[in-house]
Design brief:
- The chain has helices at residues 22-26, 44-57, 66-79, 148-159, 203-210, 221-225; strands at residues 2-5, 8-11, 29-36, 85-92, 109-116, 124-128, 164-168, 174-177, 181-186, 189-192, 215-216, 229-233, 238-244, 247-248.
- The protein has 2 domains: 2-116, 2-Layer Sandwich (D-amino Acid Aminotransferase, Chain A, domain 1); 124-248, D-amino Acid Aminotransferase, subunit A, domain 2 (D-amino Acid Aminotransferase, Chain A, domain 2, Alpha-Beta Barrel).
- It is 23% helix and 28% strand.
- With 255 residues, it is α+β, with helices and mostly antiparallel strands.
- The longest helix is centred in the first third of the chain and has 14 residues, at 44-57.
- The mean pLDDT is 96.
- It is globular and about 55 Å long.
């Protein structure tokens, strides 16, 4: 595999991340997962805007323009012979001295990798996690490198025989799953939690809202119990949910 690291296209075996990189040591950074089709990322503008918003929250400069990133994506896909692919863009604050407070000079690390697009998955089983989504945290709005709560929730779901974890916020309402936006069909209408409920501003979520295929509204436990169907989606897929905590659901497509 060839990847793009700090402006250079290199073999994966030759890639080196500084051992003092704050992304590695502290999770100090953001990332984007993007879907490429036909050798390009159709929603690049949305991804780049979200990357910039997350970086701004962390007071972290984005070292490339959208056009440079588009070129890097094209180079990586071509170098790996891919047209349909999953891309991962990782931006860290770069290497730094020991301690929490970043010290100048700042040299961000930017890494772009690609893999074959995973095959389309079937219906999912969800388990409600004991890990809560803190809707008051500013990190809910960004794709931070610190994914430990999501990892713990996914481990918990796997231990219960489920495919993914349903995360509730501190108010006890649905926020999202460990890696996807939640869409719930109630009385014939697909709804998704507002960002204020702790939902990540997902790219597929934004597209479906813009197309009026889904609408924002808080989702309570009562709503989940009365749901006609549930889907979960992210940049790479949109999948129906077959069961939540063992309760079977019809596998309806979001339309």
């Amino acid at each position: 595999m060839r990847l793009w690291l700090n402006g250079a296209l290199i073999e994966a075996e030759a890639a080196r991340i500084d051992p003092a990189d704050r992304g590695f040591l502290l999770g100090d950074g953001v990332f984007e997962t993007m879907a490429a089709t036909g050798g390009m990322v159709p929603e690049l503008a949305r991804h780049y805007a979200r990357l910039c918003a997350g970086a701004a929250l962390l007071r972290l400069p984005v070292p490339v323009s959208r056009d440079v990133l588009r070129g890097a994506i094209s180079d990586v896909l071509m170098a790996n012979g891919l047209q349909e692919a999953a891309l991962r863009l990782t931006l860290t604050r770069g290497p730094g001295a020991r301690g929490l407070l970043p010290q100048p000079p700042l040299t961000p690390t930017l890494l772009l990798t690609s893999t074959q697009m995973p095959p389309a998955g079937g219906p999912l089983r969800l388990a409600t996690s004991t890990i809560q989504r803190d809707e008051a945290s500013p990190l809910c709005a960004i794709k931070s490198l610190n994914y430990l709560p999501n990892i713990l929730a996914r481990l918990e779901a796997a231990e219960r025989g489920a495919d993914d974890a349903l995360l509730l916020n501190r108010a006890g309402r649905a926020a999202e799953t460990s890696a996807a936006t939640l869409f719930v069909r109630i009385k014939g209408t697909w709804i998704t939690p507002p960002l204020s409920e702790g939902a990540l501003p997902g790219i597929r979520r934004a597209c479906l809202l813009a197309a009026r295929r889904a609408h924002e509204a808080p989702i309570t436990i009562t709503d989940l119990a009365a749901a006609e169907a549930i889907c979960v989606g992210n940049a790479l897929s949109l999948r129906p949910v077959a069961a939540v905590d063992g309760r079977a659901l019809p596998c309806l497509a979001l339309a």
